[in-house]
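Incident log, entry 3
Record: ATP/GTP-binding protein (65 residues)
Problem: checksum mismatch between cached and fresh output.
Input:
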Amino acid sequence: MTGAATGKTYRCPGCDQEIRPGTPHVVSWPAYARDSDLEPWDTDSAADWRRHWHTACWAARDRRR
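Fresh output:
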């Protein structure tokens, strides 16, 4: 997201620090297989699973334990 698009403070799951309003960052949510019991286009459920990450934390997520 661009920093201008944000108006709230989020907590990054990568570093557990705040992402302040106006800070560009990555928003992610899980993808479900088409044959999953979960409805892949259920946007209300998807919103519950969104996570906001610092861009650098997202890029380094594979190197974390």
